[in-house]
Amino acid sequence: MKNTIITIDGHSGCGKSTLAKSLAVKLKYLYIDTGAMYRAISLFFLRSNLIKNGELKDGCLDSMKDVKIDFSIPNSNGKSFVRLNSEIVEEDIRGIEISNLVSQVSKNRFVREKMVSIQKSYGRENNLVMDGRDIGSVVFPNADLKFWLTASVETRAYRRWLEFKDKGQDILIEKVIENINFRDENDKSRKESPLIKPINSIEIDSTNISAQETFLQALKIIKKKLK
């Protein structure tokens, strides 16, 4: 039997991961956080001293053979965490330093090819909810249902600022807005798999609605489409 695949694409900070996790729990599907995968590979390059001024150094391509990125077995709450060479690195990848690097790292073809290969492998074995920047356009263009999630820059920056604050990271919201705009531009202008609205995707604007309202709106669409 063919596995069911639901994709959620959109800009940084628009609530893709929150929506995808909630849908996966409700539907009892596997959830894969592709953003965490790109953050993990960025962390690997940073730790390996293979990044200078935001750009990858020579040797990054050869180093990829030493990189394994996957996810831990879901815990009792259904949560799994990204692993870099068997180490859970969730806390290490969520700071502003990695946020400032990830768009630069993810624009490289050899990085995207490795990540996309891993992402596709999950879809061959599981009913899946996956979010990211090119999931409905490149990774799973024939997904059963594709969402395009959007929100204003101000709303996205405020949500991300609250995440930093909850983790005890004292960051000016102006810096978060700057990071959001920087990542948006990089995601849209990169040559490899630029951020675009996937064909046949359903748009949800979460600017003025809560995460719960976004979830209920998406779930209603899913039930109608996949019944």
What do you see in this structure?
The chain has 227 residues and is an alpha/beta fold. It has one domain: P-loop containing nucleotide triphosphate hydrolases (Rossmann fold). Helices cover 48% and strands 16% of the residues. It has nine helices and ten strands. Strands 2-8-1-9-10 form a five-stranded parallel sheet, sandwiched between helices. The protein has a three-stranded antiparallel sheet with strand order 5-6-7, covered by helices on one side. Strands 3-4 form a two-stranded antiparallel ribbon. A hairpin with a 2-residue loop joins β3 and β4 (55-56). α2 packs across α4, α4 packs parallel to α8 and α7 crosses α8. The radius of gyration is 17 Å and the shape is globular. The relative contact order is 0.21. The model has no long low-confidence stretch (mean pLDDT 90).
Short account of what is shown:
With about 230 residues, this protein is of the alpha/beta class. Helix content is about 50%, strand content about 15%. It has one domain: P-loop containing nucleotide triphosphate hydrolases (Rossmann fold, 3-Layer(aba) Sandwich), CATH 3.40.50.300.
